[in-house]
């Protein structure tokens, strides 16, 4: 039920807050996020750092939630985030607020039992990840190649800390 509510909520949010005339401007950054997210889900298929607790519903699977998240929720979030980001000092405050809100939402879902951390990942790693992710998304919207180049060592460092064993790779 919450999956349907989340999808509906973000569609309504998109109607009111997304400037659809600008979608092409945001599209490369949305693709960047989706590719990274789906790559994580592929590489860490048997060694998740976090997952959605779907034990209460037979039909509700991590994959279905991730598809909704990747193709509806995240595009809406990125388009709103990038559309309203101010420049200068206000931009820094804006990014910090997004980091905190994104992290707080995750912590809230964890407390409600919808979200599970695995393999040494925890809410503090998520906070650090968000502190990297939101500025990288902003950078990607302005200078995609630089954002990709910066992302590669970050991904390698994360793999160093949280790598799956070869037996766990699909």
Keywords:
170 residues, mainly alpha, two-stranded antiparallel sheet, 6 helices, 4% strand
Would you give an account of this structure?
With 170 residues, this protein is mainly alpha-helical. The chain has one domain (2-168). It is 72% helix and 4% strand. It contains six helices and two strands, in the order ααβααβαα. A two-stranded antiparallel ribbon has the order 1-2. Helix 5 runs antiparallel to helix 6 (144-162). The radius of gyration is 16 Å and the shape is globular. The two termini are 30 Å apart. The model has no long low-confidence stretch (mean pLDDT 89). InterPro entries: CBO0543-like. Keywords: Membrane, Transmembrane, Transmembrane helix. The chain crosses the membrane at residues 6-23, 30-52, 64-84, 91-109, 144-162.
Total count of helical runs of at least 4 residues: 6
Record the strand order, biggest sheet: 1-2
The H/E string reads HHEHHEHH
Shape verdict: globular
The separation of the N and C termini measures 30 Å
Strand content: under 5%
Radius of gyration: 16 Å
What share of residues is helical?
over 70%
Question: Could you describe the largest sheet, including whether it forms a barrel?
Answer: 2 strands, antiparallel
- Mean pLDDT score: 89
Poorly predicted runs are none
Estimated structural class: mainly alpha
- Give the oligomeric state of the chains in this entry, treating copies of one chain as homo and distinct chains as hetero: single chain
Q: Tally the structural domains.
A: 1
Count all strands and give the number. 2
């Amino acid at each position: 039920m919450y999956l349907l509510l989340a999808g509906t909520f973000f569609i309504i949010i998109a109607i009111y807050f997304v400037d659809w005339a600008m979608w092409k401007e945001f599209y490369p950054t949305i693709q960047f996020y989706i590719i990274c997210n789906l790559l994580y889900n592929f590489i860490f298929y048997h060694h998740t750092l976090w997952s959605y607790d779907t034990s209460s519903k037979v039909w509700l699977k991590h994959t279905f939630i991730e598809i909704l998240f990747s193709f509806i929720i995240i595009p809406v979030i990125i388009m709103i985030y990038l559309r309203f980001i101010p420049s200068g000092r206000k931009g820094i405050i804006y990014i910090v607020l997004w980091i905190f809100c994104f992290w707080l939402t995750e912590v809230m879902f964890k407390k409600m039992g919808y979200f599970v951390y695995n393999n040494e990942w925890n809410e503090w790693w998520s906070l650090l990840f968000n502190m990297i992710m939101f500025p990288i998304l902003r950078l990607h919207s302005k200078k995609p190649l630089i954002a990709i180049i910066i992302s590669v060592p970050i991904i390698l460092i994360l793999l160093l800390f949280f790598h799956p064993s070869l037996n766990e790779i699909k």
